Amino acid sequence: MAVNYGSKRIVVGAHYGLRDWLVQRFTGGLMAVFTLVVLAQVLFAKGPIGYDTWAGVFASQWMKVLTFAVIVALIWHAWVGVRDIWMDYVQPVGTRLLLQVLSIIWLVGCGGWALQVLWRL
Amino acid sequence: MSEAAKPRPEFRNINIFNDVRTYRMPVAALVSILHRVSGALMFVLLPFIIWLFDKSVSSEISFGQFTSAFTAGLWFFPGWFVKLVVLALIWAYLHHLIAGVRHLYMDATHSVTKEFGKSSAVVTLVVSIALTVILGAKLFGLY
């Protein structure tokens, strides 16, 4: 067996996946908490839920900051998920690279649009 | 192990037409693949989701466009089709969320027995489908 530990360890190539594993957990947890926060505001709103109540939820500064963090979390979470899908089912490297690039463009575009909507209020 | 051993066999394709469809599919496996499918569905429909957010939150007029999408339809899609797509998104989000929380629970409590895998998978499916039915009934005006 070739020596590949210690000073001879190969430090390029595949990593161990720990960062992405943690990212999925924490971004997922943040989005779950955010769901509860929005749900609580909608359920405990006085009167029928029209435009004013709904837009009002996202009007306060703290809510905008939280929603911003959630949008960033969503983009990162979706990226890791989709990258895993491509990695599992698409073996040809060139095709997979193209799909990954298109996925990033898709996600960054959607994220940017969501931020634009949030700060139009 | 010598370097001159024969090359390792490589398994490239998932042999979907031969092997994959004959595997035993426990409940936990179903929850797992649906977790992936629901995530992929939301990924593909993300622009539509953001459009819904945009129209619902930007102004009274755009809010009117938002609500009319469910009645008069959107582009060439009739209103009931828009509702169906939103129902699919409701299911996708609920399943993905509950299956995700199941992951977090198993990570935190190390409940990795086969029995817990089965029982928690059943709970995931029951709760997500039940909530989908309840919210879907509201969406389609059944109450």
Structure notes:
The complex is a heterodimer of chains A (121) and B (143). Chain A is an all-alpha fold and 121 residues long. Chain A has a single domain, classed as Fumarate reductase/succinate dehydrogenase, transmembrane subunit (3 helical TM bundles of succinate and fumarate reductases), CATH 1.20.1300. In chain A, 73% of the residues lie in helices and 0% in strands. Chain A has helices spanning 18-43, 51-57, 61-89, 93-118. The longest helix of chain A has 29 residues, at 61-89. Chain A starts with 17 loop residues before the first helix and ends with a helix. The mean pLDDT of chain A is 91. Chain B has a single domain, classed as Up-down Bundle (3 helical TM bundles of succinate and fumarate reductases). By secondary structure, chain B is mostly helical. Chain B is elongated, with a radius of gyration of 21 Å. Chain B has helices spanning 27-44, 46-58, 60-71, 79-109, 114-139. The chains are: A mainly alpha (121), B mainly alpha (143). Chains A and B meet through α1, α2, α3 and α4 of A and α1, α2 and α4 of B.
Structural class of chain A: mainly alpha
Number of strands of chain B: 0
Please trace the helix and strand order of chain A, writing H or E for each element: HHHH
Q: In angstroms, what separates the terminal alpha carbons of chain A?
A: 63 Å
Write the layout of secondary structure elements.
The complex is a heterodimer of chains A (121) and B (143).
Chain A: H1 18-43, H2 51-57, H3 61-89, H4 93-118
Helix pairs in contact in A: 1-3, 3-4
Chain B: H1 27-44, H2 46-58, H3 60-71, H4 79-109, H5 114-139
Helix pairs in contact in B: 1-4, 1-5, 2-3, 3-4, 4-5
Keywords:
heterodimer, A: about 120 residues, mainly alpha, 3 helical TM bundles of succinate and fumarate reductases, 4 helices, elongated, B: about 140 residues, 5 helices
